[in-house]
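User: Show me a protein chain along with its predicted structure.
Assistant: Here is one chain, sequence first, then structure tokens.
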Amino acid sequence: MTKHEKIAVSRRSFLVGSLATGTLTMGYALMGGPLGIREAMAEGSFSPNIWFEMDGDGMVVVNITKAEMGQHVGTPLAQALAEELEVPWENVSIKYVSTAPEYGLFVTGGSWSVNWTFDQLSRAGAAGRIALMEGAVKQWGVPLAELTAENGMVMHAKSGRKISYGDLVKSGVTARNFSEEELGAIALKDPAKRKLVGKSVGALDIPGKTNGSAKFGIDVFVEGMVYGTPKVPPVRHGAKVTAVDESAAKKVAGYQGHVVIEDPTNTTTGWVVALADSYPQAIKVRDALKVTYDLGPNTQVSSATIMAEAEKLQKSAEGAQLFVKDGDSAKAMKGSKVTHEATYTTQLNIHAPLEPMNATVEVKDDVYHIHAGNQFQTLALGLVPAVLQIDPSQVVVHQYHLGGGFGRRLESDYILVAAMTAKAAGKPVKLIYSREADTTMDFSRTITHQVVRGGATDGKMDAMEQSVVSAWATSRQAPAFLADSVDKKGKVDPFSINGSDHWYTIPNQTVTTIMSPQAQSATPSGQLRSVAPGWTFWAVECFLDEMAHKAGKDPLAFKLDMLDATGKNAGTAPNSVGGAKRLANVLKVAAEKGGYGKDMGDGVGIGLAAVSAQERNSPTWTACAAQVKVDKATGDFRIQKLTLVIDVGTAVNPSGVEAQVQGGALWGTSLATKEVATMENGAIQQDNYDTYTPLRMEDIPEIDVTVLSTGHYPAGAGEPGVTVTAPAIANAIFAASGARVRDLPITPEKVKAAMG
């Protein structure tokens, strides 16, 4: 790839055309000024092959801008395009493309991928079908309305003629410009007539992963590269390198020097990268380097001091910003017959993906080519030029499969460090974090402290207040995504508080969010799979269960009464049609399938929870019935079964959705019952899988997943299975034993203490 030309973009239009004999290309053409499509082609101001390409054999390659990290995201996206293009599925393959201006935003997270791109890729396929049919019109001289397309063929019923897409491509397809308005006007298929969307097909990325041809970032090799690995300071954040003694390191075979990282973004502090001819040699160099530090301001910070500060902030409300303000909750609660208050907390959690962070950077023709698995390439495209003081056109990120993401690879730290090291070393660098560096320097899930208050009268909620103290990952990572508070008096990080704006109808509700300075400084947080709903729904769903018991009502009936889809909870097109009624439906189905209300025997309880995924404007209606057995003498518990029901609107690939929910439920169970990291003296104490201990095979419960495809617009499936499990498990433990645990992770010791 050569250096990108600078383009003055005035609008996007859609190009279908044949730039070279034998290949059909599809994509958005970036139009410079008043130029038309043909002039733009002559000027070279766009790149072809944006969404798909088709060869003379009718074989289709769909270009994917989303990151593949085990969720098989390319398959449903290809299904959407192939459905409207009308090609045989066996003719379809996918390619994960490198960054280029034509593609726009590169980000994979938030359960957004299918939701954001289904319509776009469907229309890309439909436009391609139309262009191919117009090619047949030109050949046959018949009206377009008399033609049909199916299974890679264009047919004219009146004359009995038909021609394959491949033959049309071979003959050349005239360039066709679709404006955004024309694209939007294309009538897509009636869902009842779909052949691929809604069908469980095998993931297209699996063959490459099983035969070894699929490439991950760790697999990259470029000519002349050296290996680098970071020597990290004894505190998570805030250290500064004051001196480096390399005398012993010079004696290590393969030594290629070292680079002190001076990161102007302050993403990494106090790092030195050791360089050598091989990775094992780089590890030896790292260990031989003697580095002196100023350890900075966080040496006395611990998990306990962060939580203590959060509790203090709760009491003072210092820095509180409004996220939800409906009615007057304080006034309403004074008139409630039943009131309740509870505090919910979560501890530090680590991403710990199996493939450690890595990036390879080489410079060719003044362009920095970055080879890495990443979830937010657009962020890297902004940060790397700023850090290196180069033009944005001099950076390209090449996509690779991710050996685990979970939100960790939304960060650009490893890319920035690799790029700075390559620039300083003057040669290609392959940077690999050790497992210990990867774990102790993770952008962890923040410690959170939540206080929830509520009032009810005659079995119905009058008011609810929720206050959340946490680190704000967005403030550090991408401050442009901060939002105005409800009263416009400050900024909030929506990704630290989403989920508190739930779909239950409570006439008076107040939600505030407070940034924790200690957590923000000492434990720079990131977005861990499920993001804020991993703690906000934990509090909401447990608290409503508690309120139900205090109000003398069954928790299921209590929640269903509030899921009435009135007012703001009625839902809107396209994402939330049906509103809270759809959440009520999955909750009822989960309760029935999970055996809620049945006598399960002594020490066995079933708990319920219902969530709407990460963001209110793109809900995925999900419910869980957890069946848990508790030993009342010891507090030991066993999660016997998780019954999950999810309404994704349209399940593009139902088996893929089911797999996502299964994986999410296990991830959520791990966070709920096993995983915890701790900070002491400014340092994360766990550094590998022996001390940071996710769920093991022996702990896995039976999982029953029901996927409801209700015909509405597709929603995401990656995260709601995570958020719904912890509160369902906690509510089940209470049902089984009377023990109410409000701190994650739930342990036998906490259960026993809660039983008194």
